[in-house]
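Troubleshooting: if your tokenizer reports a length mismatch, compare against these two reference records.
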Amino acid sequence: MIWKPDFDAVEWQRGAARGWHRSFCLKMTRWRGSRAQPGLMMALDRGGRCNGILYRLADGERLGQIRRLIRREVGTIEDAATVRWIPVETAHGFVRALVFWAGPKGERVSRKLPLETVAAVLARACGHMGSCAEYLYLTVKHLEERGIRDRNLWRLQELVAAELLSIHGFSGVTQSR
């Protein structure tokens, strides 16, 4: 949602969710994966600290936009448990934020995967909405544009680039002279 929120925000601010971290921990066979090559989607998982972006919705449109967002992100009854309100610290104090987290269990949840395993999946998975490698890149790019550097995502990008190099003989990145 950082770079493709699909709702109309009236403002944004940075915030920190304590006790949570970003994780590629949800298996997916649609969008950026397939049944033949499942991908991984990010969600919040317990532990650590997640610096991110909070969006404020217009008062009059809030409920409709939240409904649309949940329809987009929640595909099954099992997925409904992934929607949660959590406290997030901002420069102006704490606010409640709606987040999607990797619920306590479920057939799609893959917790604590080594970064090398995640990188191998992200480098190979692709669906009708693009590749998982692109999903990672766009997330990092848009976080950085907002002044947030996630060292784990940067490390993961390095590992995905190495995977792409081993698969295709190039990383997709060119250098100018």
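Reference record two:
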Amino acid sequence: MAATKRIETNKASPDFIKQLAGYGLATARILYHLPDYPRLLQTYIWQDYDLAPEFPVLIKFLGFWRQRLDGPLHSVVVGHSKLIKPAEIKTLDGEFWLH
């Protein structure tokens, strides 16, 4: 008889706990120079939960990049859920009809 694996469902995921602590999803487009062909640029997309506007997780990753990886950084563009998010609609007294 095969052993069944027990799945715990009462624990929150680490990402959910980060969101409760104020973290939001951050995405960075990193352009860097190819080590063998420095005139060519390559794109790397990085995504993780981070705190805006300081971005400590991204800063740590970029520090690792500079110390350990070949390919000097050219530029980094960051998007974060606190920087860009859908419009919020609040209802007031009344009814609105759209045709």
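Descriptive notes for reference record two:
- The chain is about 20% helix and 30% strand.
- The longest helix spans residues 56-68.
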